[in-house]
Amino acid sequence: MKEQPLVSIIIPTYNRAHLIGETLNSVLAQTYTHWECIVVDDGSTDATDEVLSQYVEKDSRFQYHLRPKDRPKGANACRNYGFELSEGEYVNWFDSDDLMTLNHIEVKVQSIRKTNKSYVIAQSKFFNAGCKDQDYNYILKDINLHNYITQKVNWLTYDILIKSKLANLIEFNESLRSGQEFNYFAKLVSLSTDCLLVQQVLTLRRCHKQSIQGKVQSDKNLIRISQYLSHWHVFLDLKDTLESRTKLYLFRLIFQRLFYIKNFYKFFSYKLLKEVGNFFGLRKSFHLFMAYSINLLFQREGYFFTSKLRKL
């Protein structure tokens, strides 16, 4: 390919010394060669630094950085910091326990350059025997903000290749520990739906209990907290651009998740009540707050409140 543009592959990592070598080998094996791979360590206590030093010494396209101490712990801060260090025309997010197919970057770059789209979306599948039946079911048509937020369309973090000039306009929410891709891609779709769907598996996902997703899925309360925070932050980030039907959908999910969280009152805030009042108006808000009071009185895990919301 003539005049290959630089692709920035950004990988956050934490205690993956036993896995990240396979990931970096899959990067090294790429048929597309003009890339930089920026690995940002979230404070690993294993031998991650020793593994990375071998790759940095072997190939100058690899970079290894520690998350700055003034940035919050978590993969999101690592991704944002890695992007700040990047120089590529395109950015490709990736994880430190998954694998790229040999043509992962080549197919994406060819597709985005041929069509001049703002981003391209490919597909992924599990390569672990025990997780293959959990492969994501991709339905990628009619991409718009409402369809993304209601999850009629969806994709995964490493499925995408984005023009860096578009990625410059958004960032990962560093306060979220899971569900961050929902927040990030909602913001992306709010800015642009100029994308191309690549009907090809380009990422091999590893499913294991040590992954953040694996930890979350093993704890129902963590799932509810993750979903609540993810949807609440999307509302806060995009409330001025959301359609009324999308706001209503988000409010329903926010409260349905909220009241099934253990000690949910720790997450309830005046700001949330204020946004409810602004959206529903005085009369409807009064009825909702009465339902909320009944819920607290009878400790029915949000039954009265969420049933009231479903009728709106």
Shape estimate: globular
* Total beta strand runs: 8
Q: From the alpha-carbon coordinates, what is the Rg to the nearest angstrom?
A: 21 Å
Low-confidence stretches: none
Task: Tell me the strand percentage band.
Answer: 15-25%
Which class best fits the helix and strand makeup?
alpha/beta
Return the string of H and E elements: EHEHEHEEHEHEHHEHHHHH
Major sheet attributes = 8 strands, mixed
Q: What's the mean pLDDT score?
A: 87
The spatial strand order of the largest sheet comes to 3-2-1-4-7-6-8-5
Ends apart, CA distance between termini = 55 Å
Q: How much helicity do the residues have?
A: 40-55%
Number of helices: 12
Give the topology, please.
Elements: E1 7-13, H1 20-28, E2 35-41, H2 48-58, E3 62-66, H3 75-85, E4 90-93, E5 99-100, H4 104-115, E6 119-126, H5 145-149, E7 160-163, H6 164-167, H7 180-191, E8 195-205, H8 212-217, H9 220-238, H10 244-258, H11 270-298, H12 303-310
Parallel strand pairs: 1-2, 1-4, 2-3, 6-8
Antiparallel strand pairs: 4-7, 5-8, 6-7
Outline of this structure?
The chain is an alpha/beta fold and 312 residues long.
Write structural notes for this entry.
By secondary structure, the chain is of the alpha/beta class. The longest helix has 29 residues, at 270-298. The protein has helices at residues 20-28, 48-58, 75-85, 104-115, 145-149, 164-167, 180-191, 212-217, 220-238, 244-258, 270-298, 303-310, and strands at 7-13, 35-41, 62-66, 90-93, 99-100, 119-126, 160-163, 195-205. α1 (20-28) links the parallel β1 (7-13) and β2. Helix content is 45%, strand content 15%. The chain has twelve helices and eight strands. Strands 3-2-1-4-7-6-8-5 form an eight-stranded mixed sheet.
